[in-house]
Amino acid sequence: MLINCLNRGVHTGLFVQTRNLHCVTTLAKKAVKKPGKGKKVEEDEVVEIVDLNSYIQRATAAFEKSTELHKKRLNELKAGTSNPTIFDKLKVGKENFKFTDVATTSMKGRNNLLVTVFDPKDTKSVISTILAAGLNLNPERIPNNVQQLKVALPPPTTETRKQSCKLLKDVFEEYKNSANKNSLGHIRAEVLKELKTIDKKNDSVKKVIQDLEKIHKDYTSKLQEALKQAEKSVLG
User: Fold this and answer.
1) Are residues 10 and 68 in the same domain?
2) What CATH number corresponds to the domain at position 170?
3) Looking at the structure, do residues 36 and 132 belong to the same domain, yes or no?
4) Number of domains in the chain
5) What is the pTM of this model?
6) Measured between alpha carbons, how far is residue 107 from residues 6, 84, 151, 157, 222 in Å?
7) 46 with 67, same domain?
8) Listed residues 123, 152, 181: the one ending a domain
């Protein structure tokens, strides 16, 4: 049973469990104690305060995080091979060191990457790692500097642009509706599941569900707009 908590006053003698401030409704539950032999059944009423507004606040924060992660992934793909972080996930040598533990990468002009190896003895391993990564990139030693490598970036072609757009669409679908915990669809489903355990027929809960659907639609539009801009940037 849902009761408007603003009209209840003080619940003297009741156990009140508060989830959040700005109380909108309370969910009243009754817990029945089993009587001992020869004793009457006693009922203890437990009133649990449920802040329906908090569900919208939590969903909005999660949707916002999702759009930020989506935008970050799109930017990484737009940069393609010119992204200085392109080697960061690679493993170097037999010890499988993280690439970032043995070297750092930066841009050198518009068409080259500059890889600086921290220890000269790791230079050969870094070269082998980049060649084996399947990125179609060829690191070359800089004369008189055993710790630096220049990696020339190939110019984009029609085919590579199309492939990049496909990858952008895949990222969009992942953050729109997938099993990814940061996808808009997953977030929406989890919040709806919680709301429907309260009382989905109650007018207050219905209103919150309607608000959630509207916010979800708005953030989906934001994802679509970000994809559109990223594709435009890639295609030129």
Assistant:
1) no
2) 1.10.132.20
3) no
4) 3
5) 0.64
6) 60, 6, 10, 20, 30
7) no
8) 152
pLDDT in single tens digits along all 236 residues of the chain = 444 443 333 333 333 333 333 334 444 434 445 555 555 545 555 445 678 899 999 999 999 999 999 999 998 888 776 788 889 999 999 999 999 999 999 998 878 999 999 999 999 999 999 999 988 899 999 999 999 999 998 888 888 889 889 999 999 999 999 999 999 999 999 999 998 888 767 888 999 999 999 999 999 999 999 999 999 988 87
Amino acid at 119: D
Residue-number span of the structural domain to which 171 is assigned? 52-79+157-235
Kindly give the pairing relationship between strand 112-117 and strand 103-108: antiparallel
Token reading at 85 = 């972080």
What region does 79 belong to: left with phi over 0, alpha with psi -120 to 50, or beta?
Answer: alpha
How confident is the model over 100-122, as pLDDT tens digits?
A: 999 999 998 878 999 999 999 99
Integer Cα distance of 166 and 192 in angstroms:
31
- 75 and 191: one domain? yes
